[in-house]
Amino acid sequence: MAGNINGSLKGKVAFVTGAGSGIGRATAMAFARESASVMLADVSDRGNQKTARIIEELGARALAVRCDVTRTDDVKAALDKTVEAFGRLDFAFNNAGSEQPMVATADLTEQEWDRVMAINLRGVFLCLKYDVHQETS
Question: Which residues is 91 bridged to in the sheet?
Answer without folding.
Answer: 14
